[in-house]
Design goal:
The complex is a heterodimer of chains A (356) and B (420). Chain A has 356 residues and is of the alpha/beta class. The longest helix of chain A is centred in the C-terminal third of the chain and has 20 residues. Chain A contains 15 helices and 9 strands. In chain A, strands 1, 2, 3, 4, 5, 6, 7, 8 and 9 form a 9-stranded mixed beta sheet that branches. Chain A has 2 domains: 177 residues, D-Maltodextrin-Binding Protein, domain 2 (3-Layer(aba) Sandwich); 153 residues, Periplasmic binding protein-like II (D-Maltodextrin-Binding Protein, domain 2, 3-Layer(aba) Sandwich), CATH 3.40.190.10. Chain B has 420 residues and is mostly helical. Chain B folds into 3 domains: 48 residues, no CATH class; 122 residues, no CATH class; 220 residues, MetI-like fold. Chain B contains 19 helices and 2 strands. In chain B, strand 1 and strand 2 form a beta hairpin. In chain B, helix 2 packs across helix 19 and helix 5 packs antiparallel against helix 6. Chain B is extended. Classes of the chains: A alpha/beta (356), B mainly alpha (420). The interface between A and B is medium-sized, with 33 and 35 residues.
């Protein structure tokens, strides 16, 4: 018995030590995408072995590992907000942007990445967006095309689905009110700006159906419960590609967030981890990931490439929040703003919900 | 066994060992008590570990938050040396600079900023950005810090820091009562469109009351029917009551969504029957109505079962005797039957009400904008890691339930409670 135990432990250790780069990611379709697009090709190209570990959100285990001084992960896939926080607390290795590969067209990485794509300790891998979606079969004449149409219940009478949370809702209200994306947060910082956002929401309040979980909006659209709804772009793409639903996305006024690769402080294989991050966040590496999931690469040069979905026929550019035609009026979520205002605006939002 | 036969010898009050019988009896009783105590010990430990400790911890957390006080030792000292002085002087700013350096070194700026941000929204980034530049701060500190950001002169920040410099605070209860500290440190009600907790608190109890009353009205006849039908039929009906009780809460809630939504089964039936028009579809879900309908359905078994168990043992002879003595059926019900069901009604009402007050998943799914309850706010603060605020709100809910329980005891008497 003891022999068996010992040999199991030994073989486990042998297996662990086989992987030279351990990547911790989100699992599911997202983890599969990164495994296919980054881990396998990296091993093929360099001979460095890789291993993927799934978790719900790598930020918490990374924090625990670094605090305990026992880091077993080399690269972690985490949200930009968490990366910024962990970096502030000195829990991530700094990444020198000058060492990241230039774009395929020769543009330096710092120029090639979108804003927020390169921070002190993290490199962007993809971005996902809050968008407006509708069922195209419900419109015989003109279909909505702008964020403002979401609030125009005279032109497009019907219910609207909206997330029961001020984040990305207040921003949408201001953009629909005609404020360009780059001024939204400056205006939301002022009391008048916040009043204006709530006043805009007032105009459609009686027509709103509130949703909470990401799976709800495609369902609301499919049931005909709402004419238009805000949603996460990946969910709408899935309903369209997997179930053939006639859903369309309005990209005007999209509000996007970034996901990143970061290296925890004390990673056992720092050199290989850096090489992996450089490989995965190259123009081709980022474009490859978008072949498996409808999250967009945060590099201009990747978006210039033709990305075809894994079914070998769907062109991804119209489905990605990062492609130039979809980014004409796009807003990057401000991490700083929401860390500061989250509680205050939630209280006000809840008060507004209850008031008639 | 041997000792028992010995004590049974009544020869004298002194036993063979020379010990008075009384003492030996006391010893034997003590041993039995110890044994009994050891038997209940596992339960006692279990209750302490899973109930008393967590509740105590929750209450402590609602009054305790050391996010700022642990990160700002110098300011803590300055505040204790200047008890009532609101305007900070150079020494105050020097203490702040020292603490900012300390926060940078220990990576505590985020935690400290978060604590102040609870009182003064928008100030977390003030701390994190100032701590990032803390090493460059030089005397005179007042000018240096105000040079970073003019917001540091805001008296509300200093009021909040003074309050937070002690880990024990009433701030979270103040927030829960829609009260804040003004620029001069006095208490004031928060801005009208930020008031949310008190109104929701009242609404939660009101809505729970409505749900309880509807449950009672529906459950009473069902329980009576169950109690009076022959066994075979009653069992069949009982299964109908219990079946939803055994079904997953989420399944039941989502089934109601399918039934009640605008394009749902009920509305489509009404439209096809011509009772309502296509554009007159009823809004039965994603609002307060939805919350009430679904919660009544989910909580109904908790009302039916205790009432049924009491009704089953009421002898039918009492009612017959009353009728034969000339009472009308209404009088018989009012004066003979209903009072006997009171213990069951009390148990059902208490159960349903207390469960309803703490419900959160159903209102979250079907409540829409106006069907939210107090527990949804607790859940919000939990997900934002503001555990102290969540604890304060939970303590308020607990206090409300305890007050009602006390009232119930005074008015009806808790000894009349019968759960089955």
């Amino acid at each position: 018995m003891r022999k068996l135990l010992l040999s199991t432990v030994l073989s486990c250790m042998a297996f662990m030590s086989q992987a030279d780069v351990t990547v911790m990611s989100w699992g599911g379709a997202y983890g599969t995408a990164q495994n296919e697009a980054h881990l396998k090709p990296f091993t093929e190209k360099t001979g460095i072995r890789t291993r993927m570990v799934d978790t719900d959100n790598a930020a918490s285990p990374i924090r625990a590992m670094v605090e305990a001084g026992n880091v077993t992960v080399d690269v972690a896939s985490i949200e930009l907000a968490d990366a910024t926080r962990l970096c502030d607390e000195g829990m991530l290795e700094p990444i020198d942007p000058a060492k990241l590969p230039a774009g395929s067209d020769g543009t330096a990485a710092e120029e090639d990445f979108f804003h927020g794509g390169i921070t002190d300790c993290a490199v962007g891998t993809d971005l996902w967006a809050n968008i407006i979606a509708f069922d195209s079969t419900k419109f015989s004449g003109e279909a909505p095309s702008k964020a403002a149409d979401f609030f125009d219940t005279e032109k497009f009478p019907g219910k609207r689905g909206l997330k029961k949370n001020p984040k990305a809702v207040l921003e949408l209200a201001l953009m629909a009110d005609g404020i360009p994306a780059d001024e939204v947060y400056a205006i939301l910082e002022t009391p008048e700006g916040r009043d204006r956002a709530f006043a805009k929401l007032d105009t459609i309040k009686k027509d709103i159906v509130w949703w909470e979980a990401g799976a709800q909006p495609p369902q609301l659209l499919a049931d005909g419960e709402v004419l238009m709804t805000t949603a996460y772009n990946g969910r709408i793409f899935n309903a369209y590609i997997e179930e053939g639903k006639p859903f369309e996305i309005i990209w005007d006024g999209q509000i996007y967030e970034l996901n990143t690769y970061a290296i925890p402080k004390g990673a056992p294989n720092l050199e290989e981890a850096m090489e992996f991050v450089r490989f995965a966040t190259s123009t081709e590496g980022l474009a490859e990931q978008s072949r498996y999931i409808s999250y967009g690469p945060p590099r201009k040069s990747s978006n210039a490439m033709e990305i075809i979905y894994k079914d070998e026929k769907t062109v991804m550019a119209p489905n990605l929040p990062s492609s130039p035609e979809n980014r004409e009026n796009a807003l990057e979520t401000s991490i700083e703003f929401w860390v500061d205002r989250d509680t205050e605006l939630n209280e006000r939002f809840n008060n507004w919900l209850i008031a008639n | 066994m041997a000792s028992i036969t010995q004590t049974a010898v009544p020869a004298s009050s002194l036993a063979s060992e020379g010990m008075p019988l009384k003492i030996r009896l006391a010893r034997a009783q003590a041993r039995n008590r110890r044994r009994a105590f050891l038997l209940v010990l596992p339960l006692l430990l279990f209750v302490t570990l899973t109930f008393v400790l967590p509740i105590g911890q929750m209450l402590q957390r609602s009054l305790y938050h050391d996010g700022f006080s642990a990160a700002a030792p110098s300011l803590g000292q300055w505040f204790s040396e200047n008890p009532e002085d609101i305007r900070p002087d150079e020494a105050g700013f020097a203490a702040l600079a020292a603490d900012l350096r300390y926060m940078k070194e220990q990576n505590l700026a985020g935690a400290a900023g978060t604590r102040i941000n609870y009182n003064v929204p928008g100030s977390r980034s003030l701390f994190t950005s100032a701590a990032r530049k803390a090493d460059d701060l030089e005397a005179p500190y007042r000018d240096a810090i105000l040079g970073l950001d003019q917001k540091w002169d805001d008296p509300r920040i200093w009021v909040a820091m003074r309050e937070a410099s002690s880990p024990w605070t009433s701030d979270f209860y103040l927030t829960a009562l829609d009260i804040q500290r003004g620029a001069d440190g006095t208490l004031e009600r928060v801005d009208e469109h930020s008031r949310v907790y008190l109104a929701l608190y009242g609404k939660t109890f009101l809505l729970s009351g409505v749900i309880t009353v509807i449950c009672l009205v529906l459950a009473f006849p069902i329980a009576h029917l169950l109690a009076t039908l022959p066994m075979g039929k009653a069992n069949l009906l009982m299964i109908l009551v219990l079946l939803p009780f055994w079904t997953s809460l989420l399944v039941r809630t989502t089934s109601w969504i399918v039934l009640l939504q605008g394009q749902g089964v009920l509305n489509s039936l009404l439209v096809s029957a011509g009772i309502i028009g296509e554009d007159g579809r009823l809004a039965l879900i994603n609002n307060q109505t939805g919350t009430i309908i679904v919660m009544v359905h989910i909580l109904l078994p908790f009302m039916v079962l205790p009432i049924y168990s009491v009704m089953r043992v009421i002898p039918p002879a009492y009612a017959r005797a009353a009728r034969s003595l000339g009472a009308t059926s209404w009088t018989t019900f009012r004066r003979i039957y209903a009072p006997q069901t009171l213990p069951g009604i009390g148990a059902g009402v208490l159960l349903v009400f207390i469960l309803a007050v703490g419900y959160y998943i159903t209102p979250a799914l079907v409540g829409g904008a106006d069907g939210q309850l107090f527990s949804n706010q607790i859940q919000f603060h939990m997900t934002r890691s503001n555990w102290s605020q969540a604890a304060a709100l939970a303590a308020m809910l607990l206090a409300g339930v305890l007050v009602l329980y006390w009232l119930y005891d005074r008015l009806i008497g808790i000894d009349k409670l019968k759960l089955g």
